[in-house]
Amino acid sequence: MSPLPLQDVRIVDVCQFLAxxxxxxxxxxxxxxxxxxxxxxxxxxLRLMGGYPQPDGYEWSAAFNTVNVNKxxxxxxxNHPRGKDIFKKLVKASDVVTNNFSSRVMENLSxxxxxxxxxxxxxxxxxxxxxxxxxxxxxxVAMGPNIEMLAGTPMVSGYPNGSPMLNGYIAxxxxxxxGAVAVMVALKHRQRTGKGQHIDLSHVEAITSFNAQPIxxxxxxxxxxxxxxxxxxxxxxxxxxxCKGEDEWVAIAVSSEEEWANLCDAMGNPSWVRExxxxxxxxxxGNHDPLxxxxxxxxxxxxxxxxxxxxxxxxVAAAPVLASSELVSDPHLEQREFIQEVTHPVTGTYKQQGxxxxxxxxxxxxxxxxxxLGQHNEYVFTKLLGMTIEELRQLAEDKVIGxxxxxxxxxxxxxxxxxxxxxxxxxxxxxxxxEKRKGIEEEENTTx
Amino acid sequence: MQxxxxxxxxxxxxxxxxxxxxxxILADYGADVIKVETPGxxxxxxxxxxxPDDKPELETSGLFLYLxxxxxxxxxxxxSPTGVKIFKDLVKTTDAVIENFNQRLMTxxxxxxxxxxxxxxxxxxxxxxxxxxxxxxxDYKSTDLTVWALSGILYETGDPxxxxxxxxxxxxxxxxxxxxxxxxxxxxxxxDGTGVGQYVDVSAWExxxxxxxxxxxxxxxxxxxxxxxxxxxxxxxxxxxxGHVGFFFGTQANWESLCALLGMPELRDKPGxxxxxxxxxxxxxxxxxxxSWLKDRCVEEVFHAAQExxxxxxxxxxxxxxxxxxxxxxxxxxxxxxHPMAGKLTYPGALFKLSETPWRAGRAPLLxxxxxxxxxxxxxxxxxxxxxxxxxGVI
Lengths: 448, 395
Prior knowledge:
Strand content of chain B: 5-15%
Mean pLDDT of chain B: 96
CATH architecture of the largest domain in chain A: 3-Layer(aba) Sandwich
Shape of chain A: elongated
Radius of gyration of chain A: 26 Å
Oligomer: heterodimer
């Protein structure tokens, strides 16, 4: 096996849900050995988002199984004195510890940075709650869509003259990326100086920086930018145009006068391109609406891939709007081997995203699927901490560790009244699919 | 206090946003970044707004000023053989080269990794491009919007009955830039442990796709392609008396707390409102109940009352309101940076805070501001050499 860039780094990860675990997964993919900590008292909530209503349903969440690849999983009840003790031993044997709780959670567990630095003076600790670890809002709650809104994104997003729009799912992964960068910066510093430190990452702050352009416009000119849909701030045409088929689209972006001429050529120079209202950049931008209609009249008779080919040959930026179903068979991604098949011990073999960066000497890949709950208890506690099997047996008896969640509503032992719907919102379609699946299973059970 | 990345030397061949954003983050945390710009014109982003009073000027583009803090600027004509020779002299003593030019240009300039690594065998070089440096589309043209289109995320964003809609400002470029930071530092970390440099190829398309990480597995495992849903219950973004608030009420606990916030406990178990699916069916009624409750209230009042109930409801500020948010004020997120041409302006600040190593609030350089420092002090050219290089159009 070829080496990986962070192969000598060990991370203890108590992050939950999406932003934190995904930040750590990026570092795991770069080679860090990551020990993910959950407990049988409290699962990582992401296991419930898209989990299945069945005895091992907490192993089925596609979201969980994507953002936890390349990690080991152990269970540890951090409220139990033995759990805390073992946690500190792990911290002592590690380089980085990560959490995305609000500040008071780690303090209440008596596992704050001050405490952990006492255990391991060289430790790097990443804390990444939504609002950061200080300030009047530090203990407030925020979900991904809130973060997107607090960064100001929806107010500059939307159809021209329409209401604000958001994506809703994108803020957490943006914060993840900033979190991984933060740890990497601290690791590089530690490599040179031997010194650890505490990282305070606010999702809101990290994502606000993406909106520097409209922020600087306000600072410089007092202007609140209007929503302009898919359009460029000054160059026309740019937009997403309907193509042949149902819900099929192509994105076209002209960036210069030369490209405008190329676009006209590629469309066969219809007479309207020479009309005065499209003749210079300013008037063309001013007549964006009618221009879009004319372009769409051309695109809507063609396949979106064909439009890309025609326009790219002519030197104009154009790309089909791809759905997830099309990404898995895209020839470019296929040649770059971006999407990988991964076999998970419970769910089976499926396709997943790979890592978006190629290293010439230390290629990054999915080496391990997302772990099942407590899958690596024995490996981590005996090999790494030198504990005995007898000790583990005792810990399991005391419910400090384990591999089955307590109170799982779909376990064989659980009563009918416990079987409430556990599925979180995963966007349109997914919930329906899960509902349907549940229906099918119930039907199967009845026929049995 | 020393910065985290003190001593790391970076050369930037940057263009527009992704490359410069990457090196900005490195420079903000202490790396010594030299930005190599075209004589006379500079980075093309210098001519992209916003500008103070909308007057275009090479030194005052707001986007340029933000993306190039803490860097040094030299001018160098890479199309001249002398320019290439000088660049290679700089590469000899640098740790990393980061570029987001197009590949054909890099090859044509003779600045591929394969060539540069002969100059400096320990070099880490990172290319940030839309498609990556391999694959059938590698030479295609691309912009922020077309990367959105390819990522799979555009298809899922916007109203169901309209065209897919990109959001935000320059998200795809910032994401590619951050992957650039992450991976160039990882490669430097590896190099400093082993002595082995390497080439790092960042694809903005793939990078942006990964910001919706489970899309592929959901399709592969469930056969589900997510559709556009717009912005509607259980999400919301609604006006108050003095601004907007936004929310996401995804759980049963949220629903119960919401009824308490509205002072309408009777809603909780009202027929048709009891399960998430039923509430989805009545989303318009529910949204209008919330909207009429909000419209005469203040953002602050609603925000704090909701948070008392652990409800994920927050302000949804515009750019004027963001700068005044108390959380930002207390944490000192926005910083004032002075610049000889643009004056003192407020900028978004640190991406994250490090307890032991400071973030730097330095300004962006003027075009070629550091020519003398780099060419004379670092490479040993005389002032007379500089004059002659300028006359030859090299700098």
